[in-house]
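Listing S7. Sequence submitted for prediction.
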Amino acid sequence: MADDALIHDENGGMPRLLEIMRRLRDPATGCPWDIEQDFDTIAPYTIEEAYEVADAIARKDWAELEGELGDLLLQTVYHTQMGSEAGHFTFDSVVKNISDKMVARHPHVFGDESRDKSAEQQVQDWEKIKAAERAKKAQTRTLDGVAIGLPALTRAVKLQKRAARVEFDWPDTSHVIDKIVEEAGELVEARETLSHTEITEEFGDLLFVVANLARHLDIDPEEALRAANGKFTRRFAAIEDALGARGKTPAESNLEEMDALWDAAKLKEKGQS
């Protein structure tokens, strides 16, 4: 009864959410679907919820962001409940871990170090602290600790940043652009002579170098591609609207007509910018 009272207490806060998850996972009385889940099956939902948080922020939908942050918090609670059941960790130990980490990584706020330094210097100090943390985990190689589950473009940039710390990097963007031209040429050749697997490898090489160019230009490639996706969506919607005004659908049109409408949408956007 006490547990039921907490579950139905609208002001129960974090203890309420933890109890809800514990009850959902209860082998005898919980939800069959929730009971069947494990870390591997929940991980994709965690990634999805993080993207939905980013999407709400991009759209500046603060009311929706509140709900999405709750969904993301639930993912943390879900994983910590499973971790507790398996004896790996608990919600409290996870909170302690991140709190200790934040204090250790900000000696200029919580310790004796001076705050009188640039943001760039603080980033450098942060990286030194993280390198020391990796060393304690026996992550001694330069590229150790770059999460495999990151979006591929993001991981490419992080890998390249790590390599650049030990001077494995092109000195300027001209070398990167030359490499892009080289990789594009290899892809064209591969299209005619190699297997699909080999073509895929060449395409991956090209994307990797493009990500490197983004890093040299201080561009987030994921953000840039999201913007390009948004632009494509807007302009294709304009094509559909224009065709609709003519009583047609894209399937009833042709590439020449749609390409002209695309150019018109592009000019209109530029005129409004």
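Caption to Listing S7: primary sequence and predicted structure tokens for the chain studied. DSSP finds 13 helices and no strands in the chain. The longest helix spans residues 62-86.
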